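call fold(seq) -> tokens
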Amino acid sequence: MAGRANCGVVVNMVKCYAANSELVEQVAFFAFILGNGSLLPQNSINHDIEYDYEECIMEDPRVLVEVFCVYVNNYVNSADPSIAEQRAAQWLAHQCLPEYTIDPPIEPWELLESQGKGDVFDAIKAFGRAIAFGDLPGEYIEGIDYSEYLSVGGSFLEEVIKVFLNNLLVNEDGIVINYREALKRATQYIRYYIDKSYAVNPPIAGWEVGEYDRPDTLQ
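ret:
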């Protein structure tokens, strides 16, 4: 399973990137297909279905939170992103189309928002809740309505979560140590994505959005 990578000693503390490049790309791809409307289930009971879940997500932020939870919890359980994507797609379809049957049914553990570990996976689920409910640092997002961008094309959500994950750090025990800072950076990117006149300080670096590799060592 993808995990943390690249560590350094900063102010007498071991700090590591919370997610290696594989995990970043897999979660970002999930965000991309969620955002572009193609997170659709494929199974033999209901047959392959196509529907527009944008309105469903906009009406109830809990739906987006739970989709993130189902994806992350199945990613951890199976170490297979395709299984995680399909379980999330099935749950999303069931929430938006109550007649849709999930087989096997979703179990309680798949919907858990926190495992109480404080690791990168708990942080991803917390990010899902924050962006769904708008629980973002207000000084960077005030007056900005980003809700319509969540499900109109996949690049927005994909790039925002890349900024979040590429800035997320853990200690030597794998516990996230800068969740709010990483969330702030992602929020600044949201503002810049929508309002190009906004000056991000410091400017967003290419490695934050995955244009090139992150610095090899933490300073």
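The first helix runs from residue 21 to 35.
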